[in-house]
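Purpose: get a first structural picture of the assembly so the mutagenesis plan has something to point at.
Setup: three entries, given in the order below. No constraints added.
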Amino acid sequence: MSEITPDTVRHLASLARILVTDAEVEKLAGELAVIVDSVAKVNQAVSKDVVATSHPIPMANVFREDVVRPSLSQSQALSAAPDSAEGRFRVAAILDEE
Amino acid sequence: MAKDNLLSYEAALEQFEVVIGLEVHVELNTKTKMFCGCANEFGSEPNTNVCPVCLGLPGSLPAVNKKAVESSMAIGLALGCKIAPTGRFARKNYFYPDLSKNFQTSQYDEPIAYDGEITIELDSGESFVVQIERAHMEEDAGKLTHVGGATGRIQGAEYSLVDYNRAGVPLVEIVTRPVFGAGDKAPELAAAYVRAIRDIVKSMDVSDAKMERGNVRCDANVSLRKKGAEKLGTRTETKNVNSLRSIENAVRYEIQRQAYILSQGGTITQETRHWHEDRGYTSAGRPKSDADDYRYFPEPDLVPVQPDIAWIESIRSALPENPAARRKRLQSAWGFSELEFRDVVNSDLLDQVEATVAAGASPQAARKWWTGELARVANASEIEISALQITPEQVAAIQKLIDAGDLTDRMAREVVAGVLAGEGEPAAVIEKRGLKVVTDEGALIAAIDEALAKQPDVLEKIREGKVQAAGAVIGAVMQAMKGQADAARVRELILERANS
Amino acid sequence: MSELVYRPASELVALIAKKEVSSVEVTKAFFDRSEKLNPVTNSYLHLNRELALAAANSADEALSRGEVSSPLHGVPIAVKDNLTTTDAPTTSGSKILEGWVPQYDATVVTKLRQGAMPILGKTNLDEFAMGSSTEYSAFGPSKNPWDLDRIPGGSGGGSSSAVSGFLAPVAIGSDTGGSIRFPAAVTGSVGAKPTYGAVSRYGLIALASSLDQIGPVANNVLDTALLQDVISGHDPMDSTSLPNSLGSMAQAVRQADPKGLRVGVVKQLSSDGFQPGVKELFDDTIAKLVAEGVEVVEVDCPSFEYAVAAYYLILPAEASSNLAKFDSVRFGLRVTPEGNPTIERVMAATREAGFGPEVKRRIILGTYALSSGYYDAYYGSAQKVRTLIQQDLNRAFEKVDVLLTPTAPTTAFKIGEKVNDPLAMYLNDIATIPANLAGIPGMSVPNGLAREDGLPSGVQILAPQMQDALMYRVGAIIEKLYLAQWGSPLLTKAPKLEAK
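Result (structure tokens, whole complex):
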């Protein structure tokens, strides 16, 4: 019954920004199909009128006052960066060259 | 750049009905960011207003800024929205290097405010009701700088640099329902709508509302459908339209571009488009596709916002008057001409004029001071007029002295200069500078007689009824009085003496 | 005084307070042992001798000034490597974070420092706490001191093997679906998952935000309670942290009186799928309680059948979003593919190289569970199962004070036995998961050695939300009954590591 095909895996991996080889895609599709089949039963357990619980303890209205707290220094902020320049994080170009 | 074919605006409007939708992002002017205590500050050194939370360091958690929630509710209320009994934050998941967590903490199916409307009046006097679908809270992203390549644009850049100072700055996104029936006024309505939002958030002091700084940003959705058709056409979303003029131009451009494609039997691609202000066209961004599956889900690190009635009402009661309604009220109360009033509004001087009138000056006098002398001084010193060190009360006090004949216009300008120079209240400036209208008529008459004696030809002309000739004598008398005389009284006296 | 390492923390703190031994001596003793045995057990990923001894020295100095900073003042501790520490690398068991030294301390780490507890080092875990055995750690599995060919449980196997192997007197763990309780059960130690929100998650590298909870790991119930008292309390940096204190757990332990206690046995967790020896030990625990006059009834929690399924949707969904920030931009690994790659490709290559297979599996599963068209069926339904589980538990807790279950279906399995069968691995958590889904506290206390393999087993105590003190009281009752039977703690029966 599972809809997990290799193409699904490829699409999901791209959404999740994980490079996958064809061999990995095949393997993952198989594994995920088994897992999805076993977890899909949650669907049968619940009816429409059951409310969802997204937070285990019912709480609301937790706020912080609008008061400035010390920030990191620039060098602390950049201390773990794989690459930086001019006080900024340096990354590869964003788009393919056109 | 591929230049699009456009249908003429008139032809487009003849064949198609225009439907627009607007998403306006308002950056709030809270002291701190949406989810952490870093300063919400423009222009700091890069990556100095950052902490583990807004840098998205592993293990950090968000904490909601109460003021930002209140400002968001206030904006919702000002737009006639209902405030949700439960508002929830949600994660919008997508990867982009300016997004430190690679998800944006936003709101999805439970926004804080929904179902509002706002009436927009165009310059022509025509008005449209724009329905607000929702106003929700979210966080801004960091700022990318593209290095290398030709122009600092994203295309062709060698690499990019990221500054997260802006990451996490609170935003309110206001989304309209589709707006129908604006016809050829759609572009103008779009711009007027954004201007109205800008004026409202500015009047509320919840945002700096500077479009040039990106405090107010607009994405414009445009679609066309054949006149009489039921089904909505495919829409495009034009981003990066950040001035009122751009909004109008971009919407107009999209109408003409889409009309051409449709009139040729083509189809519109649902996509994001970018507006290029410099050359006046839109270009295609990424097509909307399943790659934009944002996988929204409730933000598990935050709890819901459940405002009670008392909180909502206290925010509602603190709302300022709607700026459009206020303008209407003031224009009619002051009796200004259309032109005079627009001058005040466009110079952003409503507050000052209103306060000056409240302090006792006549509306016309208040207007003249602010749009005249004070605007000139501000302009000459290259500062904002609001930064001038003079209060509306001081302006009104000076005007009162003029009205009472204690100061001449020229003397009044000198008092203003003294106040601006920090010499104290108008009375102190007058005292210090010895500015006093000469009311001793004996001295005036002596000076007049002397002047008339020196210019017998003028005296002759006046006696012949050419009263405008008196001007030459007024000048001489005022000079003799070192300017400290009431010119109108001098004139009266000249005529009296000449004809006696 | 090599014997120091076998003393409970509650005794060490008393010795230190009485200055019979210094914190420095205690800390040294644990380092001497750890430096010798960690190559055998692989409990620690990082040992911090110099800094810990400096902290111990400060603890001694504070004592000599008469200052006592916490109920465990001077007692050293091991910390799971998914909590941020500014003075030690924090890897979360992943290559993607190798070498990262965080810019901030987790709130719990701050509390340990303020409580004068020297941090011995950072303990091993399954990568990002995803697993039940530590076999998914990028740095190799930890070993079970009872049998070095077996797993010490997971994900907190580093902490459980450190504590049960006497490489640390107490340790910090985190529990998303059983990661404190399962390792405690299979190593004969004690571990507690407090009520969700009792301990701040700020600085805990998130796995599944709505399930994660930090908790104590120790060799007996009192030490566990003392540690919970040190680390719990409201934290404004964690919006989901409980506003009020749950009281003193240590005090609850000292009131280990079974009088009037009502215990429920969950029908769905007492029959099938348990190793016979484990089941026998559980029945024995119940029999001991009945003999003490405790009322035991069977309770029905039909929704528990769906707990594992719901968990393996909620966890991957939240994890897929939480782990998006590992993108090579601000910290951690960066892998740049050949050629002139875009940031998108750098991110994808980094995540491919930096994440292990189980992490990738769960991220992709979670991405699927949240993707458009599947959300309602998967994530949405799983969240509804949480509601049903809470309802079942509420009904059960109307009838009884606490629920008891075997902590795990089996004793420790062999390294390699389940590593290629994710589904089998997931079933280890069948009894522990409901507590995380419902936010209630749960703890595991040793209840003997299974007949078949002579390996330890644990009994799990589940209490209503906020009733952590009640859970500790019951834990102490059970521990007392077994101590009376055994004469000494179960761990004294473990083979001596140094003999190997």
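Chain B has three domains: 9-315, 321-433, 441-498.
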